[in-house]
Amino acid sequence: MEYIKSKIRDVIDFPAKGVVFKDLTTAFKDPRALHILGWDLSQLYRDKGVTKVVGIESRGFICGSILAFELGAGFVPARKPGKLPAETVQASYSKEYGVDTIEIHKDAIGPDDIVVIHDDVLATGGTMAAVYNLVKSMNPKKIYVNFIIELGALGGRKALPADAEVESLLVY
């Protein structure tokens, strides 16, 4: 993980003054770092019988797709409204500056699925909580939650149900 940490760029005052943004694009562009991320993420779930990986728009698509490939699972995108072509289910959630909505296809997950929901960073947890609730409403067998980075001081885990199984590769 030290190699991965060395490839993450801190961007000061982004997206707002006082925020230190953990930019993973510098790790994603490095072939060795991307390989390590894919491998380490997949090792967390290798023997769990995962059938679907839900990646949250947009950076969650990158390693979410790699994770699905490594596990031999399907990939399900969780997107902003109006981006998916078929019937969807959606959830709204509070953000720092208002309310946002996320949706997935209504037929994306079934009762026999074991799901990993992946996003790049856990900050306040609102987006992940909304996606978790959407996935849970589809009654899969099991749900796991996964991040590359967790910003522990922001307390994002508190937004998730107490029984959610959460894994983060790096905690800052």
Description:
The protein has 172 residues and is α/β, with parallel strands linked by helices. The chain is built from 5 helices and 9 strands, in the order H-E-E-H-H-E-H-E-E-E-E-H-E-E. A 5-stranded parallel sheet has the order 4-3-7-8-9, sandwiched between helices. The chain has a two-stranded antiparallel ribbon with strand order 1-2. Helix 3 crosses helix 4 (60-71). The chain is globular, with a radius of gyration of 15 Å. The model has no long low-confidence stretch (mean pLDDT 96).
Q: How many separate helices? A: 5
Mean pLDDT: 96
Per DSSP E runs of 2 or more residues, the count of β-strands stands at 9
Strand-residue proportion: 25-35%
What is the strand arrangement across the widest sheet? Answer: 4-3-7-8-9
What ranges have pLDDT less than 50 throughout 5 or more consecutive residues?
none
What string gives the helices and strands in order? HEEHHEHEEEEHEE
Rg, Å, rounded: 15 Å
Most strands sheet: 5 strands, parallel
What's the helical proportion of residues?
25-40%
Spatial separation of the terminal alpha carbons: 12 Å
